[in-house]
Amino acid sequence: MANKNFVEELEWRGMIHTIMPGAKEQLEKEMTTAYLGIDPTADSLHIGHLVGVMILKHFQMCGHRPVALIGGATGMIGDPSGKSQERNLLDETTLRHNQEAIKAQLAKLLDFDSDAENAALLVNNYDWMKEITFLDFAREIGKMITVNYMMAKDSVKKRFNGEGDGMSFTEFTYQLLQGYDFLHLYQTLGCKVQLGGADQWGNITTGTELIRRKLGSEAEAFAITCPLITKADGTKFGKTESGNVWLDPRYTSPYKFYQFWLNVSDDDAKRYIKIFTLLDRETIESLIAEHDAAPHLRVLQKRLAQEITTMIHSKEEYEKAVEASSILFGGSTSEALRKLDEQTLLQVFEGVPQFTVSKEDLGVSFVDFAAERTKIFPSKGECRKMAQAGGVSLNKEKIADPAREITADDLIAGKYIIVQKGKKNYYLVIVA
Questions:
Q1: 151, 228, 369, 375 - which has most CB atoms within 10 Å?
Q2: What is the spatial distance between Cα 308 and Cα 276, in angstroms, rounded to a whole number?
C-alpha cells in the first residue's frame, strides 16, 4: 500500500461530497477495487470528466485498483440524472470507436499496462449486458428493487414533477442497470466501491442496495461521491461560448485548452489547482500565498495552466501554447510567430479582423497594402504617421520605412501576414 490515505488526500483537495459509512475503513484495511462510470457519447473526454479521472488517478497512487467503466449499454439508454430531456442513443460501432479513443486519453493518466497488482482496468458494460434477455433481467434483478425505492430517488422525482418531458420506461430502468454493473463488478472483480459525481448518489446507492439484497448483508459495498464542480459565479464549469473544452486536440487546441485555465478567476484557480493537479499540499499552499501577495501576476493561473496542459497534452504543447500567448500578449519576435504551426496561428488570431487579398496585391508598398489593398488604415497619411511614430508592426517587426515593399517573403506559412496597430490591435491578412 502507498503511504497516502485516499480519503484524507481527497478531503483536503475538496473532492469529497458524500462518503458512505465504512468506506474509509475498507480502504485502510486492504487494497480495494473501485470503479467510476464514463459516458461514451463522444470520442473524447472533456474537462467535466476530468474530476472523475483525477479521482481514479489518486486512487491508483494510493495503492488501490481503479476500474474505468465505459457505459456502452447505459449509453444506449441515457442517464436521467441532472437532465430534463432524454438523449440520443448510440449504435455499437460508434460506442466501440468512442471507447478506444477514451482509453487512449485515460492511459495518459492511469497505468493500464504494468504488471502491478493495482494496474487499472477498462471495462464496457455492454460486454455483459448484451447477453442478458429482458425476461432474465426482470426476473433476476427487477424483483430485487421495489418501484417505491426507485421513485424516491431525486433524479426520478424531478422528472416526474414536471421537469422536461417526463421520463420514459427506458430511462426509468437506468438506475437498475447501473446497479447491476456494480453487482457484476463486485462478483467478477471483487469491486467494493463505486466513485462518481454527487448527482450519481441515487444510482450508486441502488447498486449497494442491490448487492446487499442479492448476496446478503455480509456483502459490503460502498459509495464515494465528489462535488459537482461549478465556477465561483455559480455557472457550469467546463463550458465556454464555443462549447465544451475537450481533451482531444482536434476539438480544443492545446493553445485554447491552455488559455481556458489561464483565464479562470482567482477564486476558481484556488479550487482547481487542488482538484486538477497532482501538486502536494505544501506546494499548493505556498502558491496560493504567493498569489495572494501579488494577484496581478496570476501565479496560480499560470501554474495551473502549466500543470494541466502538460499532463493532458505534453510539455512541448504547453511550451508552444506559452509561445503563442506571448505573441498576442507579450514581446515575442517575428521568429516565434513563424514557428507557429498553421492551426495554432489561426487559433491565436481567431476573432481578430481579417482581410483576404490576392497574390497580385503583393509587390506594393506597405502604405498601399495597409490603406488600399486592405482597410487596416483609413488613409495612407494616417498609416505613414503611425509607422513613423513606431506604432505599426508587420509580423511582429516594427515598420521603420512605410514605403517598404510587401513581398512573398513576408508570408507566414505561405499565406498569412499579421499587422499590428498600436499595442492591442491585430489584423490577419490572408493571401489567397
A1: 369
A2: 7
Tens of pLDDT, residue by residue over 125-165, are 999 998 999 999 888 888 888 888 888 877 777 777 766 66
- Say what the pLDDT of residue 51 is: 95
Q: Are 80 and 163 in contact (CB under 8 A)?
A: no
Name which of 263, 423, 415 is nearest 354 in CA terms. Answer: 415
List 199, 248, 266, 361, catalytic entry = 199
Measured in whole angstroms, how far is the alpha carbon of residue 388 from the centre of its chain? 47
The residue type found at 61 is M
Q: Does residue 80 register a pLDDT over 60?
A: no
Q: Give me the catalytic one of 46, 153, 213, 385.
A: 46
Residue keyed to cell 483609413: 378
84 — pLDDT class (breaks 50, 70, 90): very low
Rounded CA-CA distance 210/173 in Å is: 14
Assess whether 423 carries a catalytic annotation. no
pLDDT in tens, 13-59: 999 999 999 999 999 999 999 999 998 989 999 999 999 999 999 99
Mean local confidence (pLDDT), 244-254: 92
Pairwise CA distance, residues 361 & 200, whole Å: 60
Count of other CB atoms within 10 angstroms of residue 364: 16
The span from the CA of 286 to the CA of 422, in Å, is: 38
Closest to 332 (Cα-Cα) out of 341, 342, 320: 320
**133 backbone φψ class: left, alpha, beta (φ>0; ψ -120 to 50):** beta
Q: What percent of the chain lies above the pLDDT cut of 70?
A: 94
Is residue 87 over pLDDT 80?
no
Question: Which of the following is catalytic: 33, 175, 178, 301?
Answer: 178
Q: In the annotation, is 97 catalytic?
A: no
User: Is 112:122 a contact under the CB 8 Å cutoff?
Assistant: yes
Among candidate residues 41, 94, 158, 380, the one labeled active-site is 41
Q: At what angle do helices 201-215 and 174-189 cross, to 10 degrees?
A: 60
Give the neighbor-by-neighbor strand order of the sheet with 121-124. Answer: 18-19, 222-226, 191-197, 33-38, 65-70, 121-124
- Burial category of 151 from C-beta neighbours within 10 Å (exposed 0-12, middle 13-18, buried 19 and up): exposed
| Angstrom distance (rounded) from CA 20 to CA 155 | 19
115 is catalytic: no
Catalytic: which of 24, 49, 320, 384? 49
